[in-house]
Amino acid sequence: MIQRKSGGESGARWLKAELHAHCNLDLADHKFSRHTAEELVDAAAARGYEVLAITCHNRDVWSPELSLYARAAGVTLIPGMEVGVEGRRHLLVYNFHAPPEGLESLQRIRARARPDTLVVAAHPYFPGTRCLNSLLEPNVELFDAIEISGFHVPGLDFNRRARALAARHGKPLVGCGDIHLLWQLDRTFTWIYAEPGIPQVIEAVKQGRVRVESRGLSYLEAARWWATALWRYAVPARRPAPGATSGRTSTRPSNPAAGRAGAARPCP
Hints:
Layout: E1 13-21, H1 37-46, E2 51-56, E3 59-60, H2 64-72, E4 76-78, E5 80-85, E6 89-94, H3 106-112, E7 118-121, E8 145-149, H4 160-169, E9 173-176, E10 188-194, H5 198-206, E11 210-214, H6 219-234
Parallel strand pairs: 1-2, 2-4, 7-8, 8-9
Antiparallel strand pairs: 1-10, 2-3, 5-6, 6-7, 10-11
């Protein structure tokens, strides 16, 4: 067991992190993920998370106001997006501060990558045309880490090839819930040994100071996820405007005390 503890003068400690999450500002998944960015921050803080990236499809929703809101809840908010490259294949980018059209190919991401940016292969070997699959290994040097997706059930885990590739190439693994519904929190996530802060967290992931915790979904939870997705996509929802915010303007969390409720949980 790795216990969360102080790192001395540096202030480094094990931070509970979710690096792949969506909200109602997502241009692709707003019908499904109907919680606001602030509600996502509140829910993560209540479960002891100290790092969160809201990675909407082709849209960076990070803002100074939202970052302050998260900070008041004890959460470091990492700027990020889930971008579509080489057609519609998904990968995760962090701290690029660039429009999605500037990150629509592996070549452009490679050209824009900096020491303080992070590139993660999202659910790379899952079925379908939106995953990297055969594009990953020939371009593996571009990726700082490989995602272990929380969307697996007993006896069916498409993360196996990702683990094998990470081992072959010495890449860190990060566990992500790919949060579309708030109840997915606390099932698959990453412990990151770092000081709270955007550059510190990114550096720690790149250096492999991470531990993955993943228990996946039960068959009932997976069925619930798909049923909710099918129902919500069938029911009209308002499409978010290009410059929209979540709607809440306060920079204080709804329950700051709850945000630290899980802070003392040990990291296995």
